[in-house]
Amino acid sequence: MNHQPVEGFSKRSKQGKIDWLIKEYLNEDRSYEQVLQQYWNDDPTLQKLHEEFSENTISNFYMPYGIAPNFLIDGKLLALPMAVEESSVVAAASKAAKFWIDKGGFKTTIINTKKLGHTHFMMKVEPHKILHFFNFNLKKKLFEATEEITKNMRNRGGGILNIRLIDKTADLENYFQLKASFDTVDSMGANFINSCLEQFGKTLTEEVQREESFTQEEKDSLQIVMNILSNFTPDCIVRAEVSCKIEDLKDDSGISNEEFATKFKRAVTIAEIEPFRATTHNKGIMNGVDAVVIATGNDFRATEACAHAYAAKDGKYSSLTHCTIDNGVFRFWIDLPISVGVVGGLTNLHPLVKFSLALLGKPSAQELMSILAVSGLAQNFGALRSLVTTGIQKGHMKMHLFNILNQLGATDEEKNHFVTYFKDKTVTHHEVITEFNNLRNK
Ligand code: MEV
């Protein structure tokens, strides 16, 4: 069937949008309406709140919201909220948290909290000439022009930290940047940064026109390309680590502590040198990071982009975690660049986000950075621990078992049977189907 483009879709009512979809794409099958409606909240105020988070909302999309308890982080015992659909993530986090709880737990250090943004512009001018103009005129004007915008942030202890003119003409003809660094305190700060940058674009345009040292041709050549924050924040970074004596590094898979430590470290080294492995390794880290990022109402696309850009910062994609064994001490750590907020955005709006932040003891943005790095490190510890001992499928399939059983329409009684059945066996899809058929044919 050929579909026609729709005009004014966003202006239709929710029902109007659903009617159109059912007619245009779903063969007039009204049962789909029921699928959407069953996820509407009974409380119309709550439903409206969710609908207004985004455009063209017709239903809500549930994600499991789970808890990984027993995280000892910088001496505080926390239960982490995790919004994630992948079956083994919360279990792996909980297991890793428990492993480290009696070994001093996780320690974190905020290395820096600087965020960045750019006004990208083109100008046909000698770099030394515009640099002189920037240093002796423009820089001061940029700070002055943004005073109103930055007032509240300055009162909270943040603001614009510095502005630099960057000559990029070696990479692209006539290309320059105003590169600014910001402290956005407890907010992620995207709107604040972008507002400042847009003002920079305007002020740059005005001041170039006023500047007497530029020729008319130079003035006319100025083009502001865009004003936008950078999601790559290598200087907004936190370190989380665990360490213990090898003699305390007991794994329950039956191998010696030394062998476990050596195999674990080798797995990290492979991720450090091999991008194919590093991608999966870091994906596992982000399983832990994103789940808490989502539960706390932050932007997981931004944290993903930043983490992967950082992983490639030396020109070759590599591991975000590292491991050493020195003088009988096992040390495992992550340096995670991450920009998050605990005020603004969804944080004061989404009831579950408010719950998550309350559960975490109303952390500052820096404390949340620490929690997120720990969640990533714990997840990576759990994955590598399984990979170098039992293999990943044992734990994965154990958690995935319920997905398979639900697909088969198993009853609660049948599910209990399978839990006992697979107590000492690795779950495979084939084995579940075979045993399910046995059970039903009995
Ligand atoms: C699966 O979501 C994540 C893992 O593949 C991570 C890893 O291999 O390190 C288990």
Please name the defining characteristics of this protein.
3-hydroxy-3-methylglutaryl-coenzyme A Reductase, Chain A, domain 2, globular, alpha+beta, 16 helices, Alpha-Beta Plaits, binds (R)-mevalonate, 442 residues
Offer a concise description of the structure.
This protein is an alpha+beta fold and 442 residues long. Helices cover 49% and strands 19% of the residues.
Question: What would your notes on this structure say?
Answer:
This protein has 442 residues and is of the alpha+beta class. It has 4 domains: 1-62, no CATH class; 72-109 and 236-390, 3-hydroxy-3-methylglutaryl-coenzyme A Reductase, Chain A, domain 2; 115-230, Hydroxymethylglutaryl-CoA reductase, class I/II, NAD/NADP-binding domain (Alpha-Beta Plaits, 2-Layer Sandwich); 395-441. It contains 16 helices and 10 strands. It has helices spanning 14-25, 31-37, 44-51, 89-101, 127-145, 147-155, 190-210, 216-221, 257-273, 275-295, 300-311, 351-359, 365-387, 392-408, 412-421, 429-441; strands at residues 65-73, 76-83, 107-113, 115-122, 159-167, 175-183, 223-230, 236-245, 321-326, 329-337. The strands form 3 sheets. The chain has a 4-stranded antiparallel β-sheet. A 4-stranded antiparallel β-sheet has the order 5-6-4-7. A hairpin with a 2-residue loop joins strand 9 and strand 10 (329-337). Helix 5 crosses helix 7 (190-210), helix 9 packs across helix 10 and helix 10 crosses helix 13 (365-387). The two termini are 46 Å apart. The mean pLDDT is 96. (R)-mevalonate binds at residues 86, 280-281, 283-284, 287, 383, 387, 392. (R)-mevalonate is lined by residues 86, 280-281, 283-284, 287, 383, 387, 392.
